[in-house]
Amino acid sequence: MDVIVIGGGIGGLSAAIGLAAGGARVTLLEKNARLGGKLNVWEYGGFTFDTGPHVLTMPWALDEVFQAAGRRLAAELPLTPLKTVCRYHFPRKPLLYLDIPSDPNAAAQAINDFAPGQAAGFRRFLAYARQVSDATTEPFLRQDFGASVRGVPSRQQWRQLAAFLALKPWRSLRDVVRECFSDPRLRRIFELYALYSGSHPARCSSIFATVADVQWRQGTYYVPGGLYRLAEKLSQIAQDLGINIATESSVKEVIVKAGRARGIRTASGERLYADAVVCNADCLTAMKTLIPPEHRCRWPDRRVDAIEPSTSAFLLLLGVAGTYPQLAHHNSFLAADGDAEFRSIFDARRPADDPTVGVACQSVTDPTKAPPGCSNLFVMTNPPALPPDPQSWGSQTFDWHTEAPAYREQVLCKLETMGLTDLRQRIQVEQMWTPLDLQSRYGAHRGAIYGLSSNGWRNAFLRPPQVSPDVQGLYFVGGSTHPGGGLPLCALSGMNAARRIASSE
Ligand SMILES: Cc1cc2nc3c(=O)[nH]c(=O)nc-3n(C[C@H](O)[C@H](O)[C@H](O)COP(=O)(O)OP(=O)(O)OC[C@H]3O[C@@H](n4cnc5c(N)ncnc54)[C@H](O)[C@@H]3O)c2cc1C
Predict the structure, then answer these.
(1) Is the pTM for the entire model greater than 0.90?
(2) Any residues with Cβ below 6 Å from ligand 1, and which?
(3) Options 1.10.10.10, 3.40.50.300, 3.50.50.60, 3.90.580.10; which CATH number does 2-39+53-76+225-303+456-504 get?
(4) What pLDDT, on the 0 to 100 scale, is given for residue 394?
(5) How far is CA 75 from CA 66, 69, 260, 410, in A?
(6) Where are the domains positioned within the chain?
(7) What digits encode the pLDDT tens for the residues 124-147?
(8) pLDDT for 293 beyond 90
């Protein structure tokens, strides 16, 4: 069987490896010069920056890809477990931070020392998160539950559905956080989990509490040398399996004949034919640009521009002189008013004036990332995705072309005020990325990190299906489809698609 994979992100690489390991002849076309998609790297002046993910969670999901090729993740890339999940810096004087250890008992103790009486709520939150993981991993992550139900659900599927409904997923993440914690600072920290799927805590389901189980039971890891090593390793495995990889090859169109995907046409006009096509390009972008309009009937059932995208990212990659002892590997400099931040992102659709700023400093864990005595800071905020049409939001529309330099200044000033003294003077190398960069580099629909937000039932539970309902032999993989964004879920989507294609032969 011949399969073409469009895009070399984690979803595309995983699908390609799963397919090739099963005997398919696979060609992977990537528009950029390097594979990895959003899992990427920037090196300059002795500094190295991961430009996307900084931590790996659910390593078992990636290990499934390695196992398909007869390898093991732990043997190929020994991971470093992070002892501190995150250091939360609070905007108050005197400056205050809270380290949350990755050991659950130590975390409960740290939380209780910080806010007496809150450890019991933390344990309840963890127990709920575990229940969510147990009820959702098999039916919803390892497969597309909706698509796997054909006709009347089986007994097992009824049981899975009952276990899911027992979680009361109609409650919001905010409801569960508020039930478990009375301390406003802790509520703020745990509500931030909504942003891990680019969503609003009061509008996304309580099942996103599962992040706590992922962090505390399954662990948070760093890949020595940087997360990009994962992309390098998967690319190497793909080559070893004989996958035909063409970089700097942009696909312009999926060729559909008699309702079936027959191949692709590249930007240079070349046509390649295959028995199946796997699309790792953002599926909302693909709906607008790659799939001929007459073959977009059943999904999406609404205008692509009417679908709420996830949040985007604003990034500063800063190589700075010296070190900041108050930085852990992973830090979050909190906004003074969390509600105002969510209102700004999700209602006003503008980056918050006082955003929560994530700062990853890998050189704390891995000295190879910066010259001796220096630090590599990856600074990130969560602005909204780009408007569908810049004119449509009137004068309130934030224009990254003109306003990015002032926003950069705002973010750096905030970090200086919160203790990173003289940050601007200490910068030696710098790169700034706005949502416009995510859109142009990776073809991300409106620059969104995860495709759709998970606000509301429809977006969270009826994500774009992996198997196209309109075009036979066309499959979607990656963060914009099922089961969702983030490295492990993208890897699972790739493996799910590979299994589906193999079973359709
Ligand atoms: C700043 C940032 C921080 C993040 N942090 C984390 C984290 O800490 N942990 C975590 O798990 N996840 C994190 N994520 C999310 C994670 O990176 C993504 O969910 C995941 O990498 C997306 O993989 P994907 O399979 O969807 O493919 P993508 O990464 O979206 O790649 C798609 C690929 O397709 C290519 N392509 C697009 N159109 C075409 C075309 N027409 N022809 C050929 N090729 C095409 C693109 O160039 C790209 O290489 C982060 C993301 C960002 C941006």
Answers:
(1) yes
(2) 6-12, 29-32, 37-39, 52-55, 250-251, 280-282, 313, 315, 380, 442-443, 449-450, 478-479, 485-487, 490
(3) 3.50.50.60
(4) 59
(5) 10, 13, 41, 44
(6) 2-39+53-76+225-303+456-504, 119-212
(7) 999 999 999 999 998 888 877 777
(8) no
